[in-house]
Amino acid sequence: MVIPLYREKEYFGGMKNWIARILVSALAVLITTYLLKGVTRVEIWDAIVIALVLSFLNAFLKPVLVILTIPATVLSLGLFLLVINACIILVADAMLDRFEVANFWWALLFSLILSFLNAILERIFGTNQEPR
Fold first, then answer.
1. Whole-angstrom Cα distance, residue 117 to residue 32?
2. Using 50, 70 and 90 to split pLDDT, how confident is the model at 17?
3. Distance CA 13, CA 16 (A)
């Protein structure tokens, strides 16, 4: 009897889910850039790159910022997390040439609308569920 080191279905199912979530997030980025005047409009390939960059920033930079700002988050009853999200958008703006956000307030509005659209689109496309 051969015991596999990993389950192929679970491994590739997770990768497919991640790719689907990136594409849904790219669609949300595309829609959000067309809704807001203070953010440059992007094409689909740029939106995919922005979604990838935001995914990695949320995975690696955001936890560090959340830990460092626990006192401010507690004092503001969690509202400071919105500031962290806007800062993540501004970092992505600094990293990417074709993505520009006018100022902090546009970044804050961009992050709010992007989160809202991501939730709706993930619910529609079913990418918010874990693979079986």
1. 8
2. confident
3. 5
